[in-house]
Amino acid sequence: MKLRTLLLGSALALAAASGLAQADDQSAAAKPVPYRYGMPMNIDKVLAMNETPTDECKVIKADIKFLDKAGKVEDVSYRKMSEACDFQN
Questions:
Q1: End-to-end CA distance of the chain
Q2: Are residues 73 and 62 in the same domain?
Q3: Cα 12 from Cα 47, distance rounded (Å)
Q4: Structural domain of 66
Q5: Separation CA 65–CA 50 (nearest Å)
Q6: Residue 74 CA to chain centroid, in angstroms?
Q7: Residue % of the chain over a pLDDT of 70
Q8: Which member of 26, 46, 77, 87 lies 3.0 to 4.6 Å from 32 by CB, making a disulfide possible if both were Cys?
Q9: Residue 86: which CATH number?
Q10: CA distance 70 to 68
Q11: What's the mean pLDDT in 22-42?
């Protein structure tokens, strides 16, 4: 009886640990990858583009989520001049 309880408890603990490991992998995949100069993008379809809103002309962080030519969703962050710079002389 005690051996069965021990085996059941260890199996449940192992299942819980593997579930936590998978949850960590998914949260890491949600973070955008920083763009490096020369990095191949292979964009097939843009899904979303986001940037930090500001009224100042300055360098900001932006990210693009896209579908690559292999059908995989990619999320890449990059630095750019804010939209406020377009309206200044």
A1: 81
A2: yes
A3: 39
A4: 32-89
A5: 9
A6: 8
A7: 69
A8: 77
A9: 2.30.140
A10: 5
A11: 75
Burial of 29 from C-beta contacts in 10 A (0-12 / 13-18 / 19+): exposed
Residue 35 identity? Y
Residues 6+ apart with CB under 8 A from 10: none
Q: How many residues does the chain have?
A: 89
Pairing of strands 33-34, 59-68: unpaired
Task: Using CA atoms of 46, 48, 54, 57 in order, give the dihedral in degrees to the nearest 10.
Answer: -10
Q: Measuring CA to CA, which residue among 32, 10, 43, 19 is closest to residue 78?
A: 32
Do 53 and 89 belong to one domain?
yes
| Residue 43 shares a structural domain with residue 13 | no
Residue with tokens 């989520």: 65
Q: Which residues pair with 75 in a beta bridge?
A: 65
